[in-house]
Design goal:
The complex is a heterodimer of chains A (277) and B (427).
Chain A lengths: L2 H22 L1 E3 L5 E3 L3 H8 L1 H33 L5 H13 L2 H12 L5 H6 L9 H29 L3 H9 L4 H29 L3 H6 L7 H4 L2 H11 L3 H29 L5
Antiparallel strand pairs in A: 1-2
Helix pairs in contact in A: 1-13, 2-13, 3-7, 3-9, 4-7, 7-9, 9-13, 12-13
Chain B lengths: L1 H23 L9 E6 L5 H14 L4 E6 L2 H13 L6 E4 L1 H9 L20 H5 L11 E2 L1 E2 L2 E6 H7 L10 H15 L2 E3 L5 H11 L17 H12 L9 H6 L2 H6 L3 E7 L3 H7 L7 E4 L15 E3 L3 E3 L8 H10 L2 H9 L4 E2 L5 H6 L11 H5 L4 E3 L6 H17 L4 H18 L1
Helix pairs in contact in B: 2-14, 6-7, 8-9, 17-18
Classes of the chains: A mainly alpha (277), B alpha/beta (427).
């Protein structure tokens, strides 16, 4: 009965993966023609400053979005778990960004960040060219990424929070533990498996970021090199410049990068994730 | 249980194989009387539908479905479709790509489509825009365009500057921009990073070139090209011109139609759309011929980039009578007349320009669109060669670096020259 899933995986995931790896060792020409090219794509890639810049941008984006995003999501989850009125309404509101199309989100934020006519500058009373200044462009993208991911992460964490038995808190209260102490001694350890999963997923999504940056920073924007992520660079190489072999090498590198980060996280989890209930 | 599993697996595999062969075995398109026509410009959908309907009127057993995709997606899709021999029956071709497609043998040869002299009714530029490197025709000319100067009349009035006319030079452009900025605080001529609607025009007016005549070398090392590029890029140093970071957020057309700037270069294919889309601006703006270069290195200082699209079909449709007959009809005077009358694009067929001009009579304020037609006399074919898709975005990146101050103009243009020459050498 697992056959449909396995066939789906084989055809839609593993076959393209193998093809991509083959492609990364090839020189491609238009309309699907290609010839074996050895390691040349990789040599070109590792010598390209644009590539290293994109790798750094991707990692920076990850650093900017993941910790802040997860902490905020946890905060929201705790608030939504508390006894507040209109809890259902708040949950829906926080989850809404997840329902919106990323492209639509990016379009709206792009106008809000507009240096001349944007609402953000109008409210802050400053004149920052958010999306055209190399220092702020990636921060602006990170803000939108965090905003759109909080709801989803919060719902995941909320389900974790709801799995914690009330009796732990009652016992802690009798022993005289305060709110803060309760959070660090009960909530955090109990929720750590969910937190770990959320972290892994958010990290992968951040390393693969493309659509958001593509919509916020278009190709006529001079700051492009300072915000271009690996997947954006891949898109430009594969579909704008038509260099699919080289683009595949970028993909393979990104897979390796995600793999390494994930393995490190799995090793690191032993130190902080608590599986004994 | 095991048998069921195996049967399911077998079934799924067979189904997959079947669907794969279905992809690669293109059934003779049009055999059921249904053709698809793929285009990228939504504002021309109406005109294309009118053509489809008119053809259906003459040939009731053929129905043409018009499909629109966005410009970026169009080329990604088309390339994939070409690789798997699944191209739409009829599709638009652009000068940026026609040489690539034609030289790779993807397009049907339409040189001998007509028994009569139909092609002699198209200008040399129109014909050149639909030719492959071998000089054969791989698309039926659809339209032709020019680049014109769009200006805000109210701002000119406020600054007391007379409207642009055919005697205008680059100096007048700069002078008027300064006066308008001083009088109104609005931007003057908005010069931004763009090839067809920007620096190409200046380069060719100055007697320079981007590619030499036989398309074997780039021209970014030519003094005339470098001069014009320095002039054009340098315009952003003036207080009356926004810098490139502004344009990265606000397209010049948006800035113009929201009353932020007085002038920009626009392609003829957008004029009707802009009249319709900005009703409150009607009567406040007009079009003029491009200002000329006052002291060109060679030539008379006049040029405007003229591009043209074509209707093409896949090479495997070479003997498909349904497709070829529709294609043939699209190039006739009758079809081109219908096409022009919708006002979106100027038909390639000479003598049908008036229908395009007349389309602007529908508005209370009549744009001086004759100016756009006048420029065909000195229009220059849009720059293209077979490797253009490979160098286009890279050259653009270099020019952006010049705008961003990371490179000097000389360094940046030298890089552009190398990029193009290397692309040509690689083939």
């Amino acid at each position: 009965m697992v056959a449909p899933t396995i066939i789906g995986l084989l055809v839609l995931n593993y076959y393209p993966l193998i093809q991509t790896i083959i492609l990364s060792f090839s020189k491609t020409k238009t309309f699907g023609a290609m010839e074996f090219n050895g390691l040349n794509n990789y040599i070109d890639m590792f010598q390209s400053p644009e590539f290293w810049k994109a790798t750094w941008n991707t990692i920076l984006f990850c650093i900017l979005t993941v910790p802040v995003g997860i902490i905020l999501a946890l905060l929201v989850a705790i608030l939504l778990n508390a006894k507040v009125k209109f809890k259902g309404g708040f949950r829906a509101i926080y989850f809404l960004p997840m329902v919106c199309a990323p492209a639509a989100i990016a379009m709206v934020w792009r106008w809000m960040f507009n240096g001349e006519y944007g609402i953000i500058n109008a409210i802050l009373g400053v004149k920052i060219n958010w999306l055209t200044n190399p220092q702020t462009a990636i921060i602006a993208c990170a803000i939108v990424a965090i905003w759109s991911s909080i709801g989803y992460d919060a719902v995941l964490l909320l389900s974790g929070l709801q799995g914690i038995s009330k009796s732990y808190y009652e016992a802690a209260r009798i022993d005289g533990a305060g709110r803060i102490k309760q959070f660090f001694s009960i909530t955090l350890p109990m929720i750590s498996p969910t937190l770990f999963v959320t972290l892994i997923m958010r990290m992968m999504a951040s390393l693969k970021v493309y659509d958001l940056i593509y919509m916020m920073v278009d190709q006529s924007n001079p700051v492009l090199p300072d915000v271009q992520s690996l997947m954006y660079l891949f898109y430009r190489e594969a579909f704008v410049a038509g260099n699919k072999g080289y683009a595949s090498a970028i993909v393979v590198w990104t897979i390796l990068l995600i793999g390494i980060v994930t393995v490190v996280q799995f090793i690191g989890q032993k130190k902080w994730v608590n599986y004994d209930v | 249980m095991k048998h069921i599993k195996r049967a399911a697996l077998l079934l799924a595999t067979v189904a997959m194989l079947f669907s794969m062969t279905a992809c690669s075995n293109n059934p003779a398109s049009g055999s059921d009387g249904k053709l698809t026509m793929q285009i990228w410009d939504n504002s021309q959908r109406e005109a294309m539908q009118a053509l489809a309907d008119a053809y259906h009127e003459i040939n009731p057993d053929v129905t043409i479905e018009v499909q629109v995709t966005s410009w970026d997606e169009y080329w990604t899709k088309l390339e994939a479709a070409a690789g798997s021999k699944n191209l739409p029956d009829i599709f638009w071709m652009h000068t940026n790509y026609i040489l690539l497609y034609a030289d790779s043998g993807m397009l049907a040869d339409v040189t001998d489509l007509y028994d009569d002299d139909t092609y002699s009714h198209y200008s040399d530029v129109s014909i050149a825009n639909t030719q492959g490197s071998d000089g054969r025709m791989y698309a039926v000319p659809k339209d032709k365009d020019t680049v014109c100067l769009v200006y805000n009349k109210e701002m000119f009035d406020q600054a007391g500057v007379s409207y642009p006319d055919e005697n205008w030079t680059w100096d007048d452009l700069v002078d008027a921009s300064q006066k308008i900025y001083d009088a109104t605080g609005k931007y003057g001529y908005m010069a931004y990073c763009d090839e067809q609607l920007g620096y190409w025009n200046f380069v060719y007016q100055n007697g320079g070139y981007i590619l030499n005549d036989d398309k074997t070398a780039a021209g970014f090392d030519q003094p005339a090209t470098i001069d014009a590029m320095k002039f054009y890029i340098g315009l952003q140093d003036n207080e009356w011109c926004p810098d490139q970071t502004y344009f990265a957020e606000t397209a010049p057309g948006n800035a113009f139609f929201s009353g932020q700037g007085a002038m920009f270069f626009e392609g003829t294919w957008n004029l009707l759309y802009e009249m319709k889309n900005y009703p409150e601006m009607q009567g406040k703006w007009d079009v003029a011929v491009l200002p000329k270069c006052p002291n060109p290195v060679s030539g008379d200082g006049r040029a405007t980039i003229s591009n043209g699209l074509g209707y093409a079909t896949a090479s495997y449709n070479q003997d498909n009578e349904t497709v070829m007959d529709f294609l043939k009809w699209l190039g006739t005077e009758e079809a081109q007349q219908i096409h022009s009358s919708y006002g979106a694009a100027i038909s390639g067929y000479e003598g049908t320009e008036q229908a395009w001009v007349d389309a602007f009579d529908q508005f209370d304020y009549r744009l001086n669109v004759e100016a756009c037609i006048d420029m065909f006399d000195y229009s220059v074919q849009s720059v293209n060669d077979a490797t253009r898709p490979n160098w286009k975005s890279k050259v653009n990146d270099e020019i952006l670096k010049i705008y961003g101050g990371q490179l000097s103009v000389d360094e940046g243009l030298a890089n552009c020259n190398t990029i193009i020459n290397e692309a040509i050498a690689e083939g």
